[in-house]
Write a structure and sequence with these properties.
The protein is mainly alpha-helical and 128 residues long. It contains three helices and no strands. This is DUF983 domain-containing protein.
């Protein structure tokens, strides 16, 4: 696999994903909401709608975060045996926060990777 060199001024995939940076210019314009992309970069005009991130990250994150929350809840329950309402107060907001943040980061990473690799959907003209 060829080593793709990113042009000067572009953030890396991890940095773009963690901080919501435009993969082309590095401006903090990737997200318009907690996990919703902006239509385009307000700085360089990169059209984010042209990228197809899809719902793949949501399914994987739901399973992973769900398993992690269950393990942590069982450990807490084994250690101190709190009442049920304590579990609700702790784990509902923790689950929501972890899911939204992880979804934001994973969607940002996929969009940045698509941009750096110039990925696009195959069309009729691409068939050999």
């Amino acid at each position: 696999m060829p080593d793709i060199q990113k042009p000067k001024g572009q953030p890396g995939i991890a940095k773009a994903a963690l901080f919501g940076l435009c993969p082309q210019c590095g401006a903090k314009t990737l997200f318009a909401g907690p996990a919703r992309f902006s239509d385009r970069c307000g700085n360089c005009g990169l059209d984010y709608a042209g990228f197809n991130v899809g719902d793949g990250p949501a399914a994987l994150l739901t399973l992973g975060i769900g398993a992690l929350i269950i393990i942590m809840a069982l450990m807490l329950d084994t250690a101190v045996r709190p009442p049920f309402w304590v579990h609700v107060i702790i784990w509902v907001p923790v689950t929501a926060a972890m899911t939204v943040y992880a979804l934001r980061v994973s969607k940002g990473a996929l969009l940045a990777a698509e941009h750096y690799n110039r990925a696009k959907e195959a069309g009729r003209d691409d068939v050999t």
